[in-house]
Design goal:
Length: about 375
């Protein structure tokens, strides 16, 4: 049917547009955060893009239902404002007619959310964990920005690298000052490269064709030593232990676990999928535009519903993770309660009734009938 096709096309197009805008905002905020860490030498500059993309993918299972909800409200609001819904109603196509194309959209996007929730999100978080662990366990020079003096961890030294040759994987024109030297001094070299001791796994920066300056200039014991190769041991950048986050655990481990935290994460993955049909019904019911009240009332109410719904789900999942709830009964109760509320709102909207009955008018009408 032409109406169904137009509805599906416009909702999908709007969902993509809204998702693009939100992702752009997300990328800007996350890139700034990771760049600040790169400036501090915590992560290499080259790893910022990878970490940002992995972080973005890990949030799509939550973002897609929200973007679909916003897009659905935007499309229906426009159709009401342009009197398209009034024309369809005069042709015998009421609000219940949109349940069929809406079901198709929910099934398609539900599959996308399921794929993200159960596969891509844990995978991206696991990859991000692996990269972060690799960066933290790597040597200090991996986070140095060329052309800038960078303090070593704990203020135990200073590194300066003028340039990095990617073809040879060598640092060029290197300056190193470290308090670990027996005598205070600095080491400069034309080139340097990293290496690792096979037995001890210690990291070393090997400087090639350089000089070491020891002591205080002008003192009798001041000396300059030229060398072909000089190895400087590099302390690990960050000794903080990293643990694989719960959200990155595989589905089989979560499903069969008796640990409340793992069990709660399993229920949360399932819950994210079931938010789609509930939000779709609310969008259909709350997107009605009253010319006398404007658009703001329905939009505000729609977002209040979303916020309370997500907060209630988050609260019940937290109870499971803390061991205060033995199973997911409370989570399913939240889903069921909001589903019933959405059906109620949709029913009253279909018959052009106010969402909240006017009890005073009903009481007066009943008294008038009895009288």
């Amino acid at each position: 049917m032409i109406v169904n096709k137009a509805f599906i096309t416009e909702v999908l197009r709007t969902t993509l547009a809204v998702t693009f805008v939100i992702i752009s905002i997300f990328l800007v905020s996350r890139v700034m955060g990771f760049l600040s860490q790169a400036a501090e030498g915590l992560i290499p500059v080259g790893g910022v893009l990878s970490l940002v993309m992995l972080k973005m993918v890990s949030y799509l299972d939550v973002m897609v239902p929200l973007m679909f909800y916003i897009a659905l409200i935007m499309v229906l609001n426009r159709w009401y404002s342009d009197q398209e819904m009034a024309v369809l109603a005069s042709a015998g196509l009421g609000i219940f007619h949109f349940l069929r194309p809406l079901s198709f959209l929910v099934i398609v996007l539900g599959g996308v959310v399921t794929f993200f929730s159960f596969y891509l999100t844990p995978l991206s978080l696991a990859q991000g964990y692996s990269l972060e662990k690799q960066y933290r366990q790597s040597n200090e020079v991996s986070g140095v920005i060329t052309g800038r003096f960078v303090d070593a961890k704990g203020g135990n030294g200073v590194y300066f690298v003028e340039d990095y040759n990617r073809a040879t994987a060598n640092y060029e024109n290197v300056f190193v000052y470290s308090k670990s030297f027996e005598r205070e001094g600095v080491v400069v070299a034309k080139t340097a490269y990293r290496t690792e001791d096979e037995k001890t796994q210690d990291q070393f920066l090997v400087l090639v064709n350089g000089s070491r300056y020891e002591g205080l200039p002008g003192s009798p014991d001041y000396r300059v030593v030229d060398f072909e190769k000089y190895a400087v041991r590099i302390e690990p950048k960050n000794q903080t232990k990293l643990y694989l986050p719960v959200r990155a655990r595989p589905n089989s481990e979560l499903r069969d676990s008796t640990d409340p935290k793992l069990k709660g994460e399993w229920y949360w993955r399932v819950a994210k999928v079931f938010t789609l049909p509930v939000l779709a019904l609310f969008a259909l019911a709350l997107s009605h535009v009253d010319s006398r009240r404007g658009k703001s009332t329905g939009i505000v109410l729609a977002f209040l519903v979303y916020l309370t719904y997500e907060q209630m789900l988050g609260y019940t999942v937290a109870l499971v993770k803390q061991g205060e709830a033995s199973n997911g009964t409370m989570i399913w109760l939240v889903h069921f309660s909001y589903f019933v509320l959405a059906c109620y709102c949709l029913y009253r909207r279909n018959y052009n009734l106010p969402l909240i009955p006017d009890m005073k008018s009903s009481f007066k009408n009943r008294n008038a009938v009895e009288g």
